[in-house]
Amino acid sequence: MDEYSCFVDWDKMDATIQTQDSKELICTDFQEFKQLARQGFWAKNHSLRAKVYLKLIGNIPCRTVTPDANVYRDIVVKIVGKRNTGTLPLPEFVDNSLVPNYCLNAEGIGAVRKIICCIANQFPDISFCPALPSVVALLLHYSRDEAECFEMVCRILACNDPSKRLIDQTFLAFESSCMTFGDLVNKYCQAAHKLMVAVSEDVLEVYSDWQRWLFGELPLVYVARVFDVFLVEGYKVLYRIALALLKVFHKVRAGQPTESDNVQQDIRAFVRDIAKSVSPEKLLEKAFAIRLFSRKEIQLLHMANEKALQQKGITVKQKSVSSPKRQNVHLAVHAENFKSEIVSVKEMRDIWSWIPERFGLCQPLLLFTTLEHGCSLNRFYSHSEGHEPTLLVIKTTAKEVCGAYLSTDWSERRRGGNKLSFFGTGECFVFRLQPEVERYEWVIIKHPELAVTASEPGAKSTQVSTILSSSSIPSDSSDRLSPFLAARHFNLPSKTASMFMAGSNECIIIGGGDGQALYLDADLNHGRTSHCNTFNNQPLCSESFQISAMEVWGFKDTMNA
After folding, report:
1. pLDDT digits over 357-409, tens only?
2. 20 to 30 Å CA-CA from 228: which of 188, 284, 313, 327?
3. Is 22 exposed, middle or buried (0-12, 13-18, 19+ CB in 10 A)?
4. Contact 301, 536 (CB under 8 A)
5. How many CB atoms lie within 10 A of CB 454?
6. How far apart are CA 353 and CA 186, in angstroms?
7. Rounded to an integer, what is the distance from CA 533 to the centroid of its chain?
8. How far apart are CA 12 and CA 16, in angstroms?
């Protein structure tokens, strides 16, 4: 065996990883390197993978004073002493995480605990890092000694490149990433998300396990392949893999009864036995087939979730009680306090399961209803403005129920004066509850200059048809607006602001998805829909409809009330 094998129990290793061919890696181009990582160029050569890890981690930009191998040799005896390394207590910041064996021998298992304790000594600012035991155990596989492993882990933790996020080290960062993962599941794994809402007591509690799936439950062969790509491409890869795992779980278990009453435990067991369902290569293939948001978009979404947690005072994990997370939708919408003339508690819970995670901590708050406030667009604006986001729910005289989640304050419409003003973010969506439940994702209103004032004769139907027909045409990816960007939220130039809502004194237009859109007249008695893409989708509601009732709901922050 090679010089990197001193901590490995080769009798437990997969025989395919023990290949020791004479591969060499001579590559300087990033794109080529990325492809090699995805293809598993060094996956079956233990020594080559060790050299690649050493090179990649050695190139991570770090803080000026980053503990190295010599520091470990100086402190390990003082910190560990003569204690039994197999039972050495781990620091609180690993949150009782399992220490995966990853086919390590007895010396290697003890070394993992020693290295973590020395890291805790050198990084007093780490307050929450449950992924650390897995990372240390994996890198120990590819280290010549404990000191080299310690240095590699320290470089990952000490990365000071703001554009290169690696491992969460605080509860705020960890919880924000869990919420971000929940948002991504809501968009990219809707069938799985629907299942999670139906069978779990706490949606975010399930999604808070996503890092454990990768760093704890995945078998060594899989986690090593994930780490290969992670070191090259960064944090976004982790989201991809976790989404792919959830997709595979849903596909394999679709229609089957759950193996236990706890879907969280079911997913953990499924990930541990992932080899029964998909190979490492196929898992990566599925992960990279997902057309995920850009790194910048995900970073902005993470920032928004982090800000929401900070505003609610959720920055550290509470020791005596479970950590404040997104409430189960059954808890978020209290039956005893909820009253609507249009939707039932169950239907509102369905809607609640679709909203962004950072608003899942809130309760619905009725702001406007035509039954109480009358059919006036001005009164609609006066009761809705100052609230962000809002939920619009409509019931037609044909007993159809539809609506929209609106991400931006309606006061933004004033930027256009008396003209139809376009604003909003890509978190907007429209939905149908009756006759069948369906959510339609956002679509950008691309050509506001085509809009004519609604006061012109015959303009209204032309307006909604022209603008929203163009929005359903697929655009080149380079032209696509960022779905989570909003100039006011993220201090970006106004030209980057997306357009999903439109309002004037004459009408409102709400862009939905798959060509779906809502158009409401000023008297709030009549509306129309645009459904330009009929691919396997039922219309939002009748093309032209009479409004029986309409409600606008806000989001009440019960945590800071």
Report:
1. 888 778 889 999 999 999 989 999 999 999 999 999 999 999 999 889 998 89
2. 188
3. exposed
4. no
5. 20
6. 8
7. 27
8. 12
